[in-house]
Design goal:
By secondary structure, this protein is α/β, with parallel strands linked by helices. The chain has three domains: 42 residues, no CATH class; 81 residues, 2-Layer Sandwich (Ribosomal Protein S8, Chain: A, domain 1); 275 residues, Alpha-Beta Barrel (TIM Barrel). The chain contains 14 helices and 13 strands. An eight-stranded parallel sheet has the order 11-10-9-8-7-6-13-12. Strand 10, helix 10 and strand 11 form a beta-alpha-beta unit. It is globular.
Length: 408
């Protein structure tokens, strides 16, 4: 009787993308048709759909069961003894795609659900994006871009007062480009917790000379960090190409119009409250990801309605803006959930207070903590990271990209 090993070691594969699944299939010699047919079966999805009528949820459950998947619903749904339920659709990507096809022409709102599932499946499959600005096309997805922070403010939490002189700010921007920055983000109003607003005139005085100086000396795109349409317009006319708006176009009624008119790219960030109030009171969320994603989806609709092309939109979950420590960590861990929005993701964690809460260090000593959060963001799907320490974080991003994308 043969007493040797019958099988080799059994692996439980970790497959982050369908491309990785296809690579495994090819490595075992599956033919091209088999690769195309089987790769979607190797990625499992969990889609949460909220507040469905019970008849709708019951049909969904039966249809997914018939495909080998399932739908989790609240107790009482089958008997319709409750009015509504959340539904968790569970299955492979292939099963979920077939499920959407099966319910597309059914009643009880299932047609709309099918369309939304199809949209989500398309969005989560995206990794490469084109970001159009008034002057160029920026390719996103091959590597993570580094956005350098230039605060021309006296009161920013980390570097307030260091670059209030326009000449010093321009010189620092030139240095950042030499260190490898891909974008420079110029801001003239602090958004630290508790910060007071400044007048349009003061913000213009701080920002425009810096944007003009940088536009004459650097070759990389310039972003203006502002929530004021007048400042955004002046900065765009002075050479900026992106508007980084912490209010996601909700703070100034004319911001969307200005961005559309001047064909600017926009960064839409989630924030609850204002910088002055955002960290006061109850910071808890009933459903963190649903609330942040719904808010950003609404801002995307606002942008599109104003005539902003979808290829000019970036989203930012707003880490540190109206969130507590645990929720900031959760957003980093679950960053991939924002793929459902179908737009590239920017993350800004640099030197923020939640890093200090974990490491016990003040803003000037949060380099290592920032590096860890930048790495986590990249591994979980960020396309742009916004940082103070450009040279250091450029190297961190290069290593994280090598791990995340499996290429060097």
């Amino acid at each position: 009787m043969y007493a040797g090993r019958i099988v080799g070691p059994i692996r439980c594969l970790v497959l982050n993308t369908e491309a990785e699944a296809a690579e495994v299939l090819e490595s075992i010699g599956a033919d091209a048709y088999g690769v195309r047919a089987m790769a979607p079966k190797m990625g499992h999805l969990n889609l949460l759909i909220k507040d469905l009528p019970c008849p709708t949820a019951n049909i969904m459950k039966q249809e997914m069961l018939s495909l080998g998947g399932d739908v989790a619903v609240a107790r009482g749904t089958v008997a319709c003894s409750i009015e509504k339920t959340d539904a968790l659709v569970m299955g492979t990507r292939k099963q979920v795609g077939r499920f959407a096809e099966k319910i597309e022409k059914q009643p009880f709102g299932l047609s709309a659900i099918a369309k939304e599932i199809a949209r989500v499946l398309e969005n989560i499959g995206k990794d490469a994006f084109r970001l159009e600005t008034p002057r160029r096309t920026i390719e996103l997805g091959k590597r993570t871009l580094v956005m350098g922070i230039i605060n021309v403010t006296p009161d920013s939490f980390s570097d307030g007062g260091k670059l209030v002189d326009a000449g010093a700010a321009v010189r620092r921007g030139v240095e950042m480009e030499e260190e490898g920055a891909d974008i420079l983000d110029v801001g003239g109003e602090s958004s630290r917790p508790g910060a007071m607003t400044v007048s349009e005139e003061e913000e213009l005085r701080r920002v425009i000379p810096v944007v003009e100086g940088l536009a004459a000396r650097v070759g990389i795109p310039i972003s203006v960090d502002t929530a004021k349409a007048k400042v955004a317009k002046a900065a765009l006319e002075a050479g900026a190409e992106l508007v980084n708006d912490i209010t996601a176009l909700n703070g100034d009624d004319r911001m969307a119009e200005v961005a559309a008119e001047l064909k600017a790219s926009v960064v839409l960030m989630h924030m609850r409250g204002t910088p002055r109030t955002m960290q006061e009171g109850d910071l808890s969320y009933g459903d963190l990801f649903s609330e942040v994603i719904d808010y950003l989806a609404g801002s995307i609709r606002l942008a599109l309605d104003a005539g902003i092309d979808p290829e000019r939109i970036v989203v930012d979950p707003g880490i540190g803006f109206g969130k507590g420590l645990r929720d900031n960590i959760r957003l980093l861990r679950g960053l991939g959930e924002f793929k459902v929005l179908g737009r590239p993701i920017l993350v800004g964690t640099s030197r923020k207070a939640f890093i200090g809460a974990v490491t016990g260090k003040d803003a000037a000593e949060r380099l290592e903590g920032t590096a860890a959060t930048v790495t986590a963001a990249i591994l979980n799907g960020a396309h742009i990271v916004r940082v103070h320490d450009v040279g250091f974080m450029k190297r961190v991003a290069a290593m994280a990209d090598a791990i995340a994308r499996g290429s060097v």
